[in-house]
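Q: How would the structure tokens look for this protein?
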Amino acid sequence: MTFKQLEIIEPILKAINEEGYTIPSPIQEEAIPLLLSKKDMMASAQTGTGKTAAFAIPILQNMTQSNNTKGIKALILTPTRELAMQIKESFDAYGRHLPLKTVVIYGGVKQKNQVLKLKRGADILVATPGRLLDLINQNIIKLSQVQYFVLDEADRMLDMGFIRDVKKVISLVPKQRQTMLFSATLPKSILNLASSILNDPSRIQITPEETTLEAIKQTAYYLKSGDKQDLLLHILKEQKNASVLVFSRTKRFANKIAKRLIENKVSAIAIHGNKSQSARTEALYKFKQKQVRVLVATDVASRGIDIDELSLVINYNLPDVPETYIHRIGRTGRANHKGEAISFICEEEYSLLKDIQKHIKMEIPVNK
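A: Here is the predicted structure in token form.
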């Protein structure tokens, strides 16, 4: 199957070729024909499966082929700033030969520049919930023309406490619309939300969790809490050239880990919710460009980290929620590259490891 066989219009096909893609990923192959036929859809797919293109391409095509009313006709709601920017980049890339404008809005920065772009006109809006509701309340944004609505990373929206804001936004979007819901996991709360906002949806499940995890070499180390930094330095010296993503449970620890690495001549940078948007964007850019070898992140900042060739993820602290472990280590082992995940476990984290192993239905080999 090629993109051409999916009956994609020439301007988008040209842009896809310019991006260097010829064969759609499994989710693109399943989702694009369904969405081109204007069906609602619920998809269970991990980050890194190509899901953004799976909804961006049909939305761009359907908008091009339908009427040209003014106003925001597509709304993509996403939990984090980084993810919002990446989705905007995808719409810009696949829609580069189309007369459609995409605007992105998110919190953590002054609204002035975003408002100016909105006033110049927007066909597609990518937004985080808080900033979107702020601008709606100021009468700067109206959603009365929306025909296509995407709720991306729905489980993450729930984790981050955005579900009330999401429901408020949904109440402001026309009931006559095409709705697409994407979620890495489908807990009962997400299924309940899906049943309330989707109309006779097609359901797609791509890359079950177990399959994703089997591609990643997982190891755990039992150790005292005070020995974690020494083990981290030892691993980084063993794997000299690897780009490494380190997860910390708290912002304070993320800063502390990065500082200790820098003191030991390892290039590192921390990324978390207390950092300004420009600082977070710069940190991600430096890591992707391999100007910095180690990125230390908290979970709130992690969803926008989308890097194909990431060889190692280290859980400095285990997460409290087993699903979060899957999201974390799913940052490695992408695009047919080998991946490795190492977890540091002190005594108070033993029960968290048992919960994770039960959830993923796998034993993680443990080293003392």
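Residues 48 and 334 are 7 Å apart (CA to CA).

The longest strand covers residues 216-222.

Upvote if useful.
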